Records
---
Amino acid sequence: MTHQTAQPATLALHADDVLNNVTDVAPPIHLSTTFRYSDNPDELAPIADLSEKPEDQDPKQHIYSRITAPNSTRFETILSALLKGNAIAYSSGLSAVHAALVMLNPRRISIGHNYHGCHGVIQLMSRLTGLQKLDLDCPAEELHAGDVVLLETPLNPHGTAFNIEYYAQKAHSRGAYLIVDSTFAPPGLQNPFDFGADMVMHSGSKYFGGHSDVLCGVLATNRKDWYEQLWGDRVFLGSVMGNLESWLGVRSLRTLEVRVQRQSQNAERLVAYLHTALHAEQPAADSDEAAVQKVLYQINHASLQKEDAEWLKKQMPNGYGPVFSIVLRREDWARKLPSKLAYFHHATSLGGVESLIEWRAMTDARVDRRLLRVSIGLENWEDLRNDLVGAFKALLEAE
């Protein structure tokens, strides 16, 4: 079996075998920013004589880390196999969004209630280029050739999903492009290219890093001309992924599939429990279900979108994502709940092996102040359930 026909779990471990030039099973950490030229004068070629196309570069020869480096090249090689498109890594997710908009330079961008940082990048671009922001569900006639639809699915912070194929058809009917922010559904859960995406974006700080210790962003595309332009632009934008972060990223990608699918399974079980408890009829006064109903007002997650089951099951066949949101009945309870939990860290970001909960008002001024974003890790889901229910009861007992 060749690497081209291997399954994702195998590719995560072997797609970068072509870059092996040492005997180490675990790739070494290369921290150098600068690399020596060949000692053989006959192998020295002036830059004017070299191709500037990324596919013509020798993946084992490096000059300066703003162009290429050993660990980032490995990271991109593995991601290209997993994402089913040519992948380019950046210093952060927002750097990736910025790079996409710099390259495409749209006049209009259709966007919904996406991550607030993406709206910040759009505001910056608006100052520079006059970029106009349209609603995600604006009439198709408002889009023109070269415009962009930026679709985040599942959505931050709610964990709810949108139909990629629908928005791809809408964009393409007007000559516009669809960029899908698939951060909440990495490979193993969702492949936007299968449903018409022109470009896929990830905040790799989340699941690609997976251990709360990597900051990076990723773009992927199947268009050769776009890939070449993005690759060339990055040299001058300078928003490259660091050497150590790239090494940590390679380490993390090895276990991406098993981590994400288990985290998604844990989240779906926890969501199902909370949803059932919330709608239980006449629970006993001192029961767990009664505590859930007294404290919890609403829960949001793609797994609860029963009316969308037909397209959603095709789009996310292996799970609906490890992130969901809960809305409590009182703002002060949302502020206090994290302090009552034992197994959830009260912190922003998501995607790590440990479960996080965030009173989202701490970082996003737009949300309901009763909302908490929950990122499920690899703990036993029943322990997480008991922790949440215990925290609900602690809030009630403090009244």
---
Amino acid sequence: MNPAAREPRIAIVGAGLGGLTCARVLQRHGRRVTVFEREASADARPQGGTLDMHADTGQAALRAAGLLDRFHALARPEGDEWRVLDPATGALLNHQPPSPDDDGGDGGRPEIDRGQLRGLLLDSLTEGTVRWDRAVTGVAPQPNGTARLHFADGTAEDFDLVVGADGAWSRVRPALSHAVPGYTGVTFVETGFDHCDTRHPDLARLVGNGSLLAKGTGRSLVAQRNSNGHIRAYIAFRAPRDWHRAAGVDLTDRTAVRAHLLGMFEGWDESLRSLLRDGDHGFVNRPLFVLPAPHTWQHVPGLTLLGDAAHLMPPVGLGANLAMLDGADLAHALTDGPDIDEAVRAYEDVMLPRSTEAATGSARGLDHLVPATAG
């Protein structure tokens, strides 16, 4: 059958925020789409911390998805607050209250837990859209302009378009680009505090309704209030990727990790060191990786990328917003005309320059968050 004579077969690899946004907008315009996800279910793993949704990116994508009102019902506008503290004394150096929105109120960049946002998108999709436990191992462009998805169970399916929305270690990206993520030189170690207003009231007051930052040369502490009284803390520092091996620290040994981190932040105010000392959870090592910038590729019929698969950046507030905007933009391009290849080219012509600019800004943001030098 001539592909132009039937409804196009569209596959999205990865049920993250960008892929789900793309699927939702496609379905709003009457297009069929299948999302393949390697995880066994929506609850297979924790989804991470809080996100601030920007008006011109994340919120614009949610508006395109018809979900902006439901987002605002869940979001925390008061969470868009930053407190910057002096590492030696714990004194407040700078306070940024929530950004005003277009109506002059609070909440220009309201916060929402990543898991809540993902749940909102999943609930909006037609039942059966996401095929869980369907790990993709690779994709091969076909001579007729389609693409063949290969799955871990040995099966394969052909599609008119395969969208790689499968994150940092994308299985779709190698069909378009030889680029691989590289270590930034910065690692985040994550821990958490439960029921902070009752169990950790001093920390709750220190963090406030939003986020806290204290930074020194080559190391910083960040804490973010999530929903339900939870605070996530990130111990950020510049070090080799295998810092724990060089230090002789077993990452599964909470006591050993805590002792090493406390030594790393010796001399910092004790109110800030409580982020290392008093957590209710263990420590999760998260070395930060990025794709080269600019990351571009020669257009290949039947394939494209969005989100971290296309432009992996440091986690400084842009990644999720851009992934969702990518998803909405691609869906709109696909529904604006009958030719898939022309639509994908139009999308890439907008997305690739935008992501290059954002990657440059994100790199500067990471340098600001964890300064390599004093001053």
